[in-house]
Amino acid sequence: MRIGLIGLGVMGWRIGANLAKAGRLHVVYNRTSVKAEQFSREYGVRNAESIQRLAEESDVILTVLADDVAVQEVVEGLLPKVKGRILVEMSTISPPLSIRLAEKVKGAGGVMYDAPLVGTSIMVEQKKLTVLVGGPEEGFQNLKELLSHTASAILYMGPNGMGLYAKLVNNLLIGAYVAAMAEAFNMGVRSGLDPEKVSEFLAKYSSARSPTSELKAPKMATRDYSTQFATRHMRKDLEIIDKEAQRLGVPIPMSALALQLYRMVEAIGLSEKDYSSIFEIYSKFTRSS
Ligand SMILES: NC(=O)c1ccc[n+]([C@@H]2O[C@H](COP(=O)([O-])OP(=O)(O)OC[C@H]3O[C@@H](n4cnc5c(N)ncnc54)[C@H](OP(=O)(O)O)[C@@H]3O)[C@@H](O)[C@H]2O)c1
């Protein structure tokens, strides 16, 4: 089974590296071609000149792209070539868009899965991601084998779109959780606690500790906002949640507030930085004495 990968950003690069090291990756493509050239040199995997060319050389196509616009552009561009092929779409995008694209892929003779990722870049390197799969159940076992090069849990959530709805459940929670963590962290530091001690407490001993506090509390303590998950992606996910909540008629006061806060983080220039930089909003608006 020949595997092609489109999108060599933070996550795509590392997923590609895992597959290439296992000898499973055949061809890659990235919009900014220098990244694909570099990947090709480092891992000895062919760099395709277009997404259509990549499709011709693949039985399974993985896409790890930024957002709705990117995925729509790429999947529609692939339609003439998807017949008999499997498309595994791993980006976090709007579920209704993904469902529409899956129907188009089916109409063109292919099969599409939504398979969004839970976990950060570090977890890809450790092969500890969780992948939430939506799509036809038959064929899921084959997908599981392929994704096992990068994920420790691959969960079948239901028909097309259900992988993405499960992903929204996760990001609603971590979006609001990290905002609340920044609020708590800032109060702790302002009260005179040593930031390192607050970080250690939140990461290891707090009754609200989690894999997310383990990752993000040290980033707040050191104000090292090197990107694991960009603020703009968290804002994008909370915007998708906002839209879907309107459609479903569910109240989302916590994540709606978090969305406003992440917009403020972007407004102070931290859009590309890790979303734990939300701590800077609390720090900035704290009375100096
Ligand atoms: N980072 C995480 O921790 C994490 C965790 C879970 C889920 N996710 C989700 O996974 C997806 C990828 O995340 P990431 O962190 O890897 O993002 P990223 O570093 O921003 O990479 C985005 C990729 O999409 C490509 N792209 C953007 N717009 C495009 C377009 N119009 N046409 C074609 N390609 C386009 C980019 O190509 P260029 O190189 O040309 O810009 C790049 O390869 C996102 O949906 C994100 O929400 C991320």
From TrEMBL:
Boundaries of every 3-hydroxyisobutyrate dehydrogenase-like NAD-binding domain copy: 161-281
Superkingdom to which the source organism belongs: Archaea
Lineage summary: Archaea, Thermoproteota, Thermoprotei, Sulfolobales, Sulfolobaceae
Signal peptide: none
GO-annotated molecular function: NAD binding; NADP binding; oxidoreductase activity, acting on the CH-OH group of donors, NAD or NADP as acceptor
Protein name: Beta-hydroxyacid dehydrogenase, 3-hydroxyisobutyrate dehydrogenase
Transmembrane intervals: none
Keywords of this entry: NAD, Oxidoreductase
Coiled coil: none
Domain 6-phosphogluconate dehydrogenase NADP-binding: 2-158
One Pfam assignment: NAD_binding_2
InterPro entries for this protein: 6-PGluconate_DH-like_C_sf, 6PGD_dom2, 6PGDH_NADP-bd, HIBADH-like_NADP-bd, HIBADH-related, NAD(P)-bd_dom_sf
